[in-house]
Write a structure and sequence with these properties.
Largest sheet: 5 strands, mixed
Number of helices: 13
Structural class: alpha/beta
Order of helices and strands: HEHHEEEEEHEEEHEHEEEHHHHHEHEH
Shape: elongated
């Protein structure tokens, strides 16, 4: 939907966008529907519809049957007027999606990195995935209106920079938007990945919750959160809302050298957890975890294997894991005390089958809040980021690109 109130418009321009909004919101609409929704005259509606059809923004999809014998056209947004590319970036891969304006996925490309991601590898991967995405599709006349990208860290929307990135340090403080636009020659919109996941969960799974907080624990160090209040993302005055990985959990870490890695991320990241478990196994401890890894041929531990070891009474693993769980629970307790959300959803490396982890987190949170907060694990995984990203991109294109084309 186009937010007309945020734009400085003449009466004529307002009428154009009111009519376009009616069609977008209804999915399909006749001139009769538009008249009822806007109270505009028949002549104004006819003129605007002809304008929008001539520009290719809307299309005729048939005739409406009426009791009085009239058969007005049924119109809808031309979903192929332009296209969206959304890129989901991870430490070890990027996934790119090509969609139409309805958000329908037309094609997908993945590019995997054999080592930690840096700018040069990212440029290579993005160039390859983006070109394949446009060439491989069965659809012709691809017109990319904008490219959206999910990134960890604080996204400064005014300067198009990203800072405090926990897992991709070479991206820190560069104008990532300009950098990408020079590679793919299309407008780029950046957004924090946890914020997008929160939007996706609020839209797809929990539309009835007023305050939703999504917390992701990712590998190797990232811990972030996204906040949605009354259906809208809450980013804060400096776009840092949700950066819980930067919370201090140890006063010994409170020093002048607090750089791009937050103290909670330093103390409770998945990478550090796995390193500590490996050290324990190397010292002859955590023998049941080591046995599980050997049986499964696993090169490194995972939350699934950790939980299995705990259920097998591996007390070394339990002692180490409980220390990390307590730090994760501490962040959740602070979130509850500040926001009192309706629901907290966990994601990242915590999957729906990790019920041992969920129950441990709930146990420690209850000790700190004396309540029974609604804490769940995301059932839709990384799809939440895609859903949130496509919603964000459609809103951006409608308000900043389609609206401009319609009135000019």
């Amino acid at each position: 939907m186009i937010d007309i109130n945020k734009l400085n418009l003449s009466a004529k321009e307002q009428n154009i966008l009111k009519i376009l909004n009616t069609i977008i919101n209804n999915g399909e609409a006749s001139s009769i529907d538009i008249g009822k929704g806007t109270n505009l005259s028949v002549s104004t509606i006819s003129r605007v519809l002809n304008l929008l059809k001539n520009k290719g923004i809307i299309i005729n999809v048939g005739k409406e049957q009426t009791d009085i014998g009239r058969h007005p056209e049924i119109l809808r947004l031309n979903s192929d007027f332009g296209h969206i590319v959304f890129i989901d970036i991870y430490h070890e891969k990027i996934i790119s999606y090509l969609t139409n304006l309805d958000g329908k996925i037309l094609d997908t490309e993945e590019y995997h990195f054999e080592q930690g991601l840096n700018l040069e590898l990212f440029k290579q991967g993005l160039t390859t995935a983006y070109s394949k995405l446009l060439k491989n599709t069965e659809y012709s006349n691809i017109n990319v209106l904008a490219v959206g990208m999910s990134v960890p860290g604080v996204v400064n929307e005014s300067s198009n920079t990203v800072s405090r990135i926990p897992n991709i340090f070479s991206f820190d403080e560069i104008n990532l938007s300009d950098y990408i636009e020079n590679i793919i020659d299309a407008p780029v919109v950046l957004c924090n990945e946890s914020s997008l996941s929160a939007i996706g969960l609020a839209y797809e799974v929990y539309p009835d919750r007023n305050i939703l907080v999504y917390i992701a624990i990712t590998e190797p160090t990232g811990i972030g959160a996204g906040i949605v209040i009354d259906g809208k993302p809450h980013k804060g005055a400096t776009n840092a809302a949700g950066e819980i990985g930067s919370m201090f959990v140890d006063v010994d870490d409170f020093n002048d050298d607090h750089s791009s890695v937050g103290c909670m991320e330093s103390n409770a990241g998945v990478g550090k957890l796995l390193t500590e478990l490996n050290d324990a196994m190397g010292n002859g401890k955590a023998v049941k975890l080591k046995s599980l890894m050997e049986k499964q041929g696993a090169q490194k531990a995972s939350i699934d294997l950790i939980e299995q070891a705990i259920q097998m009474m591996d007390y070394d693993v339990q002692e180490i894991y409980d220390r990390y769980i307590k730090i994760w629970a501490l962040s959740i307790i602070n979130v509850i005390m500040l926001l009192d959300p309706d629901i907290i959803v966990l994601g990242g490396k915590i999957k729906p089958n990790n019920q041992v982890t969920l129950e441990k987190i709930k146990y420690f949170v209850r000790k700190g809040t004396y309540t029974e907060p609604d804490i769940r694990i995301s059932e839709i995984g990384s799809r939440a980021t895609l859903i949130g990203g496509l919603n964000m991109m459609r809103s951006h294109i409608f308000n900043n690109i389609l609206a401009d084309i319609a009135i000019n």
